[in-house]
Amino acid sequence: MDAFPIPAESFILGFIGAGKMAESIAKGVAKSGVLPPDRICTAVHSNLKRRDAFESIGVKVLSDNNAVVEYSDVVVFSVKPQVDKAAVITEEAFGFCCCRSEIERPSGLQRWSRWVEWTGHSRFIRVMPNTPSAVGEAATVMSLGGTATEEDGELIGKLFGSVGKIWRADEKLFDAITGLSGSGPAYIFLAIEALADGGVAAGLPRELALGLASQTVLGAASMVTKSGKHPGQLKDDVASPGGTTIAGIHELEKSGFRGILMNAVVAAAKRSRELS
User: Fold this and answer.
1) Is-contact 99 109, C-beta < 8 A?
2) CA torsion, points 74, 48, 162, 185, in degrees to nearest 10?
3) Is residue 1 assigned to a domain?
4) Deepest in the core among 76, 83, 102, 212, taking most CB within 10 A?
5) Is 154 exposed, middle or buried (0-12, 13-18, 19+ CB in 10 A)?
């Protein structure tokens, strides 16, 4: 089987699983121009809202998962790991990409070997995106497995790079990656909501408080990624002696703010191991 050529418009991309994540990635790929929507497909069985969501992008909605596999050159398995294999035809684990020519019936072992046994194919790339892919700001990590080639990696990197930033990492790190960037957006949503609630408690109108909280988190994240400074240094730059910021930081430290976030990542990583 020859490696897939670049540019990306030469192939058809299929999604097994038609949930929010698959929709976000398909939308980002199409919006970025990496691949036209008529070269993207998925299967929706009975959920009309899901069908409408993909058709509104211009994505082809096929009859079943087998049709997706037969029609596509690159298949993205976008199904949560706890989904029963009996409920689908050729998918099980969330966030796997397969650069493939043929996929057969499942049987199973463990991690990569399980996938090779299950599909009769070894050209897999595991990908962990997160929900900000919907707005082109995903944090995505991929790991090449089996006989996946560097050209396959470049292709998947181009696809997922169209919806944010992408890194490579060893497969053994993916549970921790899930706990941090996979689940992390939910932690930040909670933080934004809490900041806005604090603003309301201090007397701000709700809409203004939410807007300020959201933009503050966005701006702070941009400073970390663009300034090259350690976040601790950026924090110190804001916290003047005896000022308002250090008073707020003191309250966060008394409540164990950093420890709580660390514990959340570790708990999510542990749950990821249990599910896999």
Assistant:
1) no
2) -120
3) no
4) 76
5) middle
Residues 59 and 160 in one domain: yes
Q: Are 164 and 199 contained in the same domain?
A: no
pLDDT score of 254 = 97
| Domain of residue 252, residue span | 184-275
* 90-113 tens-digit pLDDT: 333 334 555 543 333 333 335 566
Q: Residue with structure tokens 């939308």?
A: 27
In the annotated binding site, the residues are 16-21, 65
Helices 206-227 & 231-238, crossing angle to 10 degrees? 130
Q: Which residues are annotated as a binding site for NADP(+)?
A: 16-21
C-beta atoms surrounding 221 within 10 Å: 13
Whether 9 has a pLDDT exceeding 70, the answer reads: no
Give residue 70's pLDDT.
86
Rounded distance between C-alpha atoms, residue 116 and residue 107, angstroms? 9
CATH of the domain at 220: 1.10.3730.10
144-153 pLDDT tens trace: 877 788 888 9
Q: Is 225 left (phi over 0), alpha (psi -120 to 50) or beta?
A: alpha
Tell me what the pLDDT averaged over the chain comes to. 84
Binding-site residue ranges for NADPH: 65
What's the CA gap between 104 and 246, in Å, rounded?
59
Between the alpha carbon of residue 165 and those of residues 44, 46, 130, the distances in Å are: 29, 34, 11
Q: What angle do CA 254, 255, 256 make, to 5 degrees?
A: 95
What residue has token string 């807007």? 211
Q: pLDDT tens-digit profile of 34-84? A: 889 999 999 998 889 999 999 999 999 998 888 898 888 888 888 765 554
- Identify whether residues 135 and 41 lie together within a single domain: yes
